[in-house]
Amino acid sequence: MISLEDSYAHCRAVAKSRAKNFYYSFVLLEAAQKDAMCAVYAFMRYCDDLSDEPGATRSAMDRWRYALDEALAGRPDSNPTWPGFLDSVQRYRIPHRYFYEMIEGVASDLEPRTIRTFEELYAYCYRVASVVGLTTVHIFGFTSPDALPLAEKCGIAFQLTNILRDVKEDAGLGRVYLPAEDLERFGVSVEDLGSARKTEAFGELMEFEVARARRYYRESAPLLGLVQPKARASLWALIAIYSGLLERIAQSHYDVLARRISLTTAEKTWIVVRASLGWIA
Question: For every residue of the chain, which 3-state class applies, written as one string?
């Protein structure tokens, strides 16, 4: 079995190389919290990688769920993530159900999907993103149980942002996350999502979806005041990066079919610098 120290080093390496947006906020945390965030990220990354492997099946996710069962029961296998992950879960008293919900959310992506309603989309976003937010606030520490529903909403905002950025890429994989009821309302076909040409109807659809995501950012805003003060800069940076990405999508006139919209490394670094200096509002 790998040592705890080596496990955390492995998790830090995974997060540094793979967490394009999350890792920027990790650097603002104290060492123990940063290690815990990296350990949880490494767990999530392994889930995602399993689902993205060619020919991935439910059986692979079932085996990972069983490995989680065993690890939480004190019988981890040789995966180098486990010691750091288990230490973090115990240290920050993270409810185990969040990790099972993560697995179920990722497993739902194994087959082409059509989401009919926003209620269905919300349930998906909860499993793949809100549970991440709920896990994160346990690591950050919170002063009121009101933080939990706000963390859920914050996760919804983040995942909606990801979905809007990746519309074309996801459609190419047979994954259409925008609700069918919204596509029908604005007269946009699934085929339109795979095109490089933005129609007027697609622009109107995206305007509607961006407004919905903005609403979740607004509604979750009080969360910042409910996490422990030492973690607020990290949370602020994370929100600033994701909400900044959403605004970049809007500023591009929703040009997500022709190119991938993102913040530059310099822009994300500046957000972290502002947070570290206390220039947050």
Answer: CCCHHHHHHHHHHHHHHHCCCHHHHHCCCCHHHHHHHHHHHHHHHHHHHHHHCCCCCHHHHHHHHHHHHHHHCCCCCCCCCHHHHHHHHHHCCCCCHHHHHHHHHHHCCCCCEECCCHHHHHHHHHHHHHHHHHHHHHHHCECCCCHHHHHHHHHHHHHHHHHHHCHHHHHHCCEECCCHHHHHHHCCCHHHHCCCCCCHHHHHHHHHHHHHHHHHHHHHHHHHHCECHHHHHHHHHHHHHHHHHHHHHHHCCCCCCCCCCCCCHHHHHHHHHHHHCCCCC
Q: Among 137, 165, 177, which Cα is nearest to 244's?
A: 165
- 202 in Cβ contact with 254 (< 8 Å): yes
Q: Are 195 and 165 in contact (CB under 8 A)?
A: no
User: Can you read off the two tokens belonging to residue 248?
Assistant: 């970049």
Cβ-Cβ contacts under 8 Å for 261 (sequence gap 6 or more): 165, 245, 248, 249, 252, 255
- Structure-block tokens of residue 115: 């989401």
Cα separation values, 119 from 57, 122, 123, 177, 219, Å: 26, 5, 6, 12, 17
pLDDT along the chain (281 residues), means of 10: 94 90 85 96 89 71 93 96 98 97 89 89 96 96 96 98 96 92 96 89 98 98 96 95 97 95 94 86 59
Neighbours of 173 (CB within 10 A): 12
Structure tokens at 189: 């076909």
* pTM given for the model: 0.93
Q: What type of residue is 49?
A: D
Angle at 129 between CA 213 and CA 70, to 5 degrees: 175
